[in-house]
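Recap for those who missed Tuesday's class. We walked through two folding examples back to back. For each one, the amino acid string is listed first and its predicted structure tokens come directly after. Nothing is annotated here on purpose, so try labeling regions yourself before you check the end of the notes.
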Amino acid sequence: MIGPQRFDERLSIDTIFVSPHLLGLGPDDEDPHAAYAGLKRFELGEDACPDEVSVFYNRHLNRQLWRFWWD
């Protein structure tokens, strides 16, 4: 995070996890291109495509999520 003391204040996030439902995907869909297309609908303001898009199983929530990671 670069705070308000600088002219280029911003918050950087390098990894997010999103449910297939929010991406408009079925629970068994494993197409990373479709997952990223679903993420782009949210217009998060990313500067580049993620370096990795993968299915992630969260055993604590007992559900599948999509992991988007930028290096």
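Example two. Treat it independently of the first, because the proteins are unrelated.
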Amino acid sequence: MVSLAAFLAAWTLLARISGDPTVLPSPVDLLAPFFQEVMSGALFEHMSATILRVIAAFCIAMTAGVCLGLVMGTYPEVDRWLDPWLVVFLNLPALVLIVLCYLWIGLTDVAAVAAVALNKIPGVVVVLREGARALDPDLRAMARVYRVRRAAFLRHFVLPQLAPYIAGAARSGLAVIWKVVLVVEFLGRSSGIGFQIHLYFQLFDVTMVLVYSLSFIIFMLAVEWVLLQPAESRARAWRQA
């Protein structure tokens, strides 16, 4: 909180030195347009569109990444076969994926979500592959001795060990996904926070760019503090017990 107060104070000071709210508005100058967007419903409309895209891309990326990472970390033959493609997608720029998805699928939400998910899946795969490689072989041997069923082994032996890796991938994944979603909306959608930023960028309206940018940043920080950080702490708690 102290660093946040210092940031706001520095921002206010720089805005006062600038003396031109069209170039750098102060935090106080953002309040009126913010409440105007809230009252008109525009802010909630565009934020909800962005949030839905973030949720869809996040769920797809996490599901595919966890499954693929677990398989690659468990079966070396599969890992050797897929690793070159993993390296390719890890180094493929997000902009290229976005443009190709729009060209191949069209300017639709399907293309937008697909581009974001494809951009994040490799990162999740890398984290979960390392988690699968770090699974305790003694626990696997014990499960075989006691003939633990596959479903029970996955639930009680594998998932608790992978939980910290899944939580870490989720935190880093969400941080990347919402940024890429804004780029996707900036380039080819007619709704969302990224679309609004593009609109006001064309109008050279710094105030409205900051209103929409900061509104979504604050929302995502709230998700991080309220949901993701506590979930990661619970996932790591068994290691500290």
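Answers for example two:
The mean pLDDT is 84.
The two ends are 31 Å apart (CA to CA).
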